Amino acid sequence: MREIEKLEAGLEYYFLDEEVASRKANAALLCQEFNAISATEPEKQEQKIREIIGSAGKNISVQQGFNCDNGKNTHVGNDFLSNYNLTILDIAPVTFGDNVMIGPNVDIYTVNHPLTKEGRREYLAQASPVNIGNDVWIGGKVTVMPGVTIGNNVVIASGAVVTKDIPDNTLVGGVPAKKIKDLVD
Ligand SMILES: CC(=O)SCCNC(=O)CCNC(=O)[C@H](O)C(C)(C)COP(=O)(O)OP(=O)(O)OC[C@H]1O[C@@H](n2cnc3c(N)ncnc32)[C@H](O)[C@@H]1OP(=O)(O)O
Hints:
The chain has four helices and 20 strands. By secondary structure, it is α/β, with parallel strands linked by helices. A seven-stranded mixed sheet has the order 3-6-9-14-17-19-20. It has a five-stranded parallel sheet with strand order 2-5-8-13-16, with no helix packed on it. The radius of gyration is 16 Å and the shape is globular. Bound molecules: acetyl coenzyme *A (ACO). This is Acetyltransferase.
């Protein structure tokens, strides 16, 4: 099995493998191009972000300082708005529903490294998808961990680290993120 096949199957893979690294380098290059577009050219920005990510609905706006590991693994619905400096480590798929708003400096990770020093010295990694529902507002400086599913009508308070699934109609916050209150559907 090639390393990229292991990656796609959710198995441990060697992340310095040439094929794996070149996918990341290609995404980094496209993000660099996106981030260099003049702020006076929003149409060019939208065209570029649509070229980078796997799929997008209508009415999307991504502010600059966007970075990802693949791009084609990121899927956004209709009415998607993200503020400055969104990082999506989309080694595995990251899916957003409709009506999602993201504050500045948000990180969404799909990748972990081993907890053993031997595994890290071998440059191993393993990726799990992140799923985000409809009508979700992610506050600034939130970090979402690999494998997490966020439901519909969810607000994540600024600064939270989301380590577990979040059910529908919930406001969560803190490190690790815990329920603050229920939200009205
Ligand atoms: C596209 C864009 O998003 S750009 C805008 C970026 N803006 C942001 O990121 C702001 C995000 N907003 C927040 O985090 C706000 O604090 C909100 C939305 C969570 C506040 O929601 P409210 O329902 O008004 O919460 P309220 O202020 O009444 O606080 C409720 C409880 O949550 C706590 N809380 C509020 N914010 C946070 C937070 N960021 N982290 C942890 N706990 C929090 C409060 O201390 C309070 O706790 P208590 O009941 O023990 O006193």
